[in-house]
From TrEMBL:
Signal peptide: 1-21
InterPro entries: Quinoprotein_ADH-like_sf (IPR011047), WD40/YVTN_repeat-like_dom_sf (IPR015943)
Protein name: PQQ-like beta-propeller repeat protein
Entry keyword Iron-sulfur: no
Gene3D superfamilies given in the database record: YVTN repeat-like/Quinoprotein amine dehydrogenase
Keywords associated with the record: Signal
Domain of life: Bacteria
Source organism of this protein record: Pontibacter cellulosilyticus
Length: 587
């Protein structure tokens, strides 16, 4: 009898603890919190209008604080110990190990800087009315490695090309600058600006594009209405020619040649150029307004004329003469078409809504996507495939093969809040559709693993919470967008986690030890998501949902349908914020 009594007591205590979670600590707090996140060592970052604070995950006590007047927001710089903080008038770069300010744009008399980074370096391109300089920082330690003057006055950064060895080639309104990973300025070469580009400056940014040539050290560059051959090792301009217009479209033909079309009113001036000499090989002109892209295919050239309504027209041009073959055009049904590409199904063309394919000889349609929306916000790139969730259909598209495949044979009835855009998460054994109140998983064989929906706590709350919940998953594991787009379907969050861990192996001292300990605890933290839903007795609760299994692994009762919180999936802890306190709850 006693055994039954104690078993029942244990069950009741366990149920109560599970529902209410375990309170780890409570700390006093004052003032509204603008933004909160989890630091890479597990401590808590909170931003207020006048300061940034780091609180201990163990006690809630302040680890460090940094004064930032009129602060608005911050963003963690991926795979680094640095964050960028924006105020109403200023930009800061802060080392989150100690809160030290490494860069302040106002003190440096700069406007908002552009930040570019490699695997271990951070380049701050800082431009002001009297000075433009490049500031190089170590991305892990935050050490300022160099400050290099680029120009007197404003030199706006246009694009940066990262070299395999970690060096930076920066094109700006001044010219081109080469900055090594060690902070040395190899060269700083001014480049010409065509008059056609100057006329567009107030309305349009002219094309900037760099192409390979037969010489690995030489690149063909389209910039500011010019085609030039640039030695990227020395900064020497070997050849250059002014283009017909700064409004250009192009196709990189091979190592020796590039074709460029310059738009002048309703005429497209076409020319084939030698990349080494930048000399014109042959030219022609056709009547085409609003040119999208051009594509060479054997002895033909396809030119797309874009339209905002009623589809667009793809015209056929003789590549050898650059004259229009007026007898053949291809009418498309989509809007805002602009990209042509070669595929196994013929010529592919993208629109905002779909991809169409046509035979390059007969101009007859060879197929197209039915469910995929090219501009969809749910799309997830993984290698050569793009996964999508559109109008209830879950599938993937391979543009080169011209294939659209449904991953689940029927519509997937995921319940969404009004105007909500779900996100996709690719795992080793399936794909997960994540929304604010719903989560569904389909395995790689097309079987539905689960499809769970949790009642929203109140009207419109779910759509707001959805972003917060999805951000929680990325707060502790920042993955570069480039890494995501290059990932293969077999790459899992565990492998991302391992890559992130390696980044911080060089950090010494107690902070480095804490990071490595944190990363070693769980490679599966991305499997968890916290969802706010209605409780059983008219109250509300936060549930810890396991996206791998589809099970609820924990829950926490809350007394508000709009709780202010941040979730740390590594420690399985929810930090609840009120007007006067912060509470840590183990869930």
């Amino acid at each position: 009898m006693k055994r039954i009594f104690y078993a029942l007591l244990f069950f009741l205590l366990y149920t109560y603890t599970s529902a209410n979670a375990q309170e780890l600590w409570s700390a006093n707090s004052s003032g509204s919190v603008l933004q909160k996140d989890i630091n890479i060592d597990g401590n808590i970052l909170i931003l207020k209008s006048g300061s940034l604070h780091c609180l201990s995950k163990s006690t809630g006590n302040e680890v460090w604080s940094t004064k930032i007047d009129k602060a608005k927001s911050f963003v963690r710089i991926s795979k680094s110990t640095l964050i960028q903080v924006l105020s109403e008038t200023d930009t800061f770069i802060i080392n989150i190990t100690d809160g030290k300010i490494l860069y302040n744009s106002i003190e440096a008399k700069h406007a908002s800087p552009r930040i570019r980074y490699s695997s271990n370096r951070l380049l701050v391109w800082a431009s002001g009315s009297n000075l433009t300089e490049a500031i190089l920082l170590d991305k892990v330690s935050g050490e300022v490695l160099s400050k290099t003057k680029i120009a007197d006055g404003v030199a706006k950064e246009l694009d940066t090309f990262l070299q395999p060895n970690g060096d930076f080639i920066v094109f700006s309104t001044f010219g081109v600058s080469y900055i090594t990973a060690s902070g040395k300025l190899n060269y700083n070469t001014p480049l010409k600006i065509a008059e056609s580009a100057k006329q567009l400056a107030a309305y349009y940014t002219p094309t900037l594009k760099m192409f390979p040539t037969a010489n690995p050290d030489h690149k063909a560059v389209i910039k500011d209405g010019y085609l030039l051959n640039l030695n990227i090792k020395t900064g020497q301009v070997n050849a250059e020619t002014e283009l017909a217009s700064a409004l250009v479209t192009f196709d990189n033909l091979d190592e020796q040649q590039v074709i460029i079309g310059g738009q002048i009113k309703k005429d497209l001036q076409l020319a084939v150029y030698d990349k080494s000499t930048c000399k014109e090989i042959r030219k022609g002109a056709i009547k085409v307004a609003n040119t999208g892209s051009i594509l060479r295919h054997q002895n033909d050239l396809f030119v797309i004329s874009t339209s905002t309504v009623g589809g667009s027209t793809i015209k056929l041009v003789d590549f050898n003469t650059l004259a229009l073959k007026a007898d053949k055009t291809y009418k498309t049904g989509g809007q805002y078409l602009g990209t042509l590409f070669n595929s196994e199904k013929g010529i592919g063309v993208t629109s905002a809504y779909s991809i169409n394919y046509f035979n390059p000889t007969s101009f007859e349609s060879t197929g197209g996507t039915k469910h995929y929306i090219h501009s969809g916000k749910t799309n997830l790139e993984a290698g050569d495939d793009v996964y999508f969730f559109s109008n209830g259909y879950l599938g993937k598209v391979n543009k080169t093969k011209g294939e659209e495949t449904l991953l689940y044979k029927d519509k997937l009835s995921v319940k969404l809040m009004e105007e909500e855009q779900p996100q996709l998460q690719l795992t080793e054994d399936g794909i997960i559709v994540v929304a604010s109140q719903s989560v569904a998983k389909v395995d790689l064989n097309g079987n539905l693993v689960y499809n769970e929906h949790f009642a929203p706590p109140g009207p419109s709350a779910g759509s707001v919470l959805g972003n917060a919940l999805l951000l929680a998953a990325s707060s502790y594991l920042a993955v570069d967008a480039q890494e995501k787009s290059n990932a293969s379907t077999s790459v899992s969050s565990k492998q991302y986690w391992t890559n992130e861990q390696k980044t911080f192996e060089a950090i010494g001292g107690e902070f480095g030890s804490k990071i490595r300990e944190r990363f070693s605890k769980s490679a599966n933290a991305m499997h968890y998501q916290v969802i706010l839903t209605k409780g059983d007795a008219g109250n509300f609760k936060l549930i810890k949902f396991n996206k791998q299994t589809g099970k609820v692994d924990g829950e926490l009762l809350v007394d508000s349908r709009t709780p202010d919180y941040v979730f740390d999936p590594v420690e399985s802890t929810i930090y609840l914020f009120t007007a006067d306190s912060i509470k840590a709850k183990k869930i």
